[in-house]
Amino acid sequence: MKTTCGLIACAVSMPLAAQAAPGDYDCLIEPSQVIDIRSPVSGLIDKVYVERGGAVKRGMVLVSLESSVEKAAVDLARFKSGMDGPLKSSETRLAHAVKKLGRKTELADKNYTSAQDRDDADAERRIAESEALTARENKQYAQLEYNYTASQLAQRQLRSPIDGVVVDQSMHPGELAEVGENKPSILKIARINPLRVKAILPMALYTRMKPGQGAEVVPEKPLPGRYATTVTIVDKVVDAASGTFQVRMELPNPNNALPGGVKCKVAFKGL
C-alpha cells in the first residue's frame, strides 16, 4: 500500500486530505475476495480455532470435525501398508523355486531325473511368481488404501484457502456441519490485501478510462490518508437505464491497515 504520507502525519498536518475535491467520484472499498468456509463432508464440529476479526493465513486450520472413526481407519491402513511379511515370504518361495528348477533342469539334461520332475519344478516356479506378484499388488493396494483414508481424514480439517480475516462465524463446536450450497457456512473469511475499489462513473467518461490508469483514493472519515491505485477493469457493459459504467481498481493493503466496506472518493489522473 502506498500513501503520500504516514497515517498520523496525514491526520495532523493535512486535516483537509480526506475532503473531496472537484472531479472526485464516489467509490466503495471492498474485500478483493470473500469465501464461505463449508465442510466437504458431514460431521459434528469438534473445534473452531479462529474467531470473528481474527487474521488467518493460507493453509491454516480453521475448523476440525469429530474424526475418531477416520483416525482409527488411518491407523489400520497404515499398519497394513507397512506389513512386509507376505511379500518377503513370497519372494523367498520364488527364489527357492527358481533354484529348484535350475537343479532339476541340470539333472534332466544329464538324464538323472525325469522330464516330469523338471516340468513340476517349472510349474512350482510359475506359481511362486504369481504369488510374489499378488503380494506386491496387495502391498500397493494397502498403500493406496492408506492414502485414501488419510485423504478422508484430511477432509475433516478445514483450512483457509487465502490470507485474510474472519468476518463471520455461523456455527460452533457441537453443531452438525452439512454438505451443500444451501447449508449454512461455518465461517466467512475475506481477503483485504489487496482491497478492491469500485466506482460508478457517467457514460461521458467511458472513452477516457483505460486499464492501468492511475487514480487516488480517499477513504471516508475518520480514516486518514490518500492512497495511490490503478484501474484494473473497465466494464464492457454500460447500464443503459442510468447511463453509467463500473470501474474497478486494486488497492494494496499491507498489514490490513484499511478495512473493507468503506465508502470513498476517487480522483483519476488525466481527468
UniProtKB/TrEMBL annotation:
Residues 35-178 form the CzcB-like barrel-sandwich hybrid domain. GO terms for cellular component: efflux pump complex. Residues 1-20 form the signal peptide. Keywords: Signal. The keyword Coiled coil does not apply. Pfam families: BSH_CzcB. Transmembrane segments: none annotated. PANTHER family: HLYD FAMILY OF SECRETION PROTEINS, MULTIDRUG RESISTANCE PROTEIN MDTA. Belongs to the membrane fusion protein (MFP) (TC 8.A.1) family. This is Efflux RND transporter periplasmic adaptor subunit. The lineage of its organism: Bacteria, Pseudomonadati, Pseudomonadota, Betaproteobacteria, Burkholderiales.
